[in-house]
Amino acid sequence: MVSIISITTFEGWLDFLVSTSLAEALAKNPKGPSMSMCDSCHAGCCRSYAVPISGADIIRITSDLGLSFWDFVCRWEDPDGEIAQKYAPHFHFEDEPEMPFVMCLIRGESQTWPGTGKCMFLEESPVTKEHPLGTASCGIYSSRPAACRAFPTKLNPSSELAIISDVPDRGRPSTDPVYELCPGPWEKEDFDAIHTVQDLIVAEYEMQFFNRIATVWNRRPGPFSAFPEFLNTVYSQRIRKETAEDLARNDRPDSDLKHAA
Ligand code: SF4
Ligand code: SF4
């Protein structure tokens, strides 16, 4: 029998569905969404990685939490593209015009494990006998960046299915146990079939939009101090009323609905 985990194309997935009964397919996924592995984890992911953020992530966090850009955003030098990973855009600034930077969440030092790093929003719980590395949770869970929502999944090449990535044992070369990642393998039953794909689609869309913003900014790189205002200007223009020009173009799918109403 073919495993859903091994299906990486949309056509393969459809073939699977038509070759099995719906009841049989549902029986393979009897559980609801679950991220229980994270609940008892020390969050090695949030300790290991610099988290790239999009403009949409920045606007949402500032709006939801009442923070300023400077409270949680930093720019990381990324000359080798290791942080961007062909996902996040590179920005250039006038103080170091040759250096590509990625917008990331600020990191800080762990209180539980001094000398190690973590995301500034990671909230740590004390070490216990049951959890020798402690447990930890995201302090901005409902507003967390799209990259955090997506981990450890990614879209298949045609952007229709969620693929569970192979998570390495460690997030950093360091042998420090706090950088160990997920304690076990992820299974498809651990993810919500709707939200997982939707989160991935939104993450991809917003990062593509941010890449276009980077193209504009990088034509005439300004100082980093001007970047928050630039972002606010761009995102505040993201919604506008329909104009006569829009109507004349008549290329909107809802135009028939308007005429019918
Ligand atoms: S924002 Fe939350 S989920 Fe993302 S790295 Fe920070 S603590 Fe982890
Ligand atoms: S390392 Fe894995 S199990 Fe632990 S919090 Fe991150 S995603 Fe969850």
UniProtKB/TrEMBL annotation:
| InterPro entries hit by this protein | Puta_zinc/iron-chelating_dom (IPR005358)
Example GO molecular function: methyltransferase activity
Name the keywords, alphabetized: Cell projection, Cilium, Flagellum, Methyltransferase, Transferase
Biological-process GO terms, alphabetical: methylation
Q: Give the Pfam families listed for this entry.
A: CxxCxxCC
- Origin superkingdom: Bacteria
The answer to whether the entry has keyword Transferase is yes
Q: What is this protein called?
A: Flagellin N-methylase
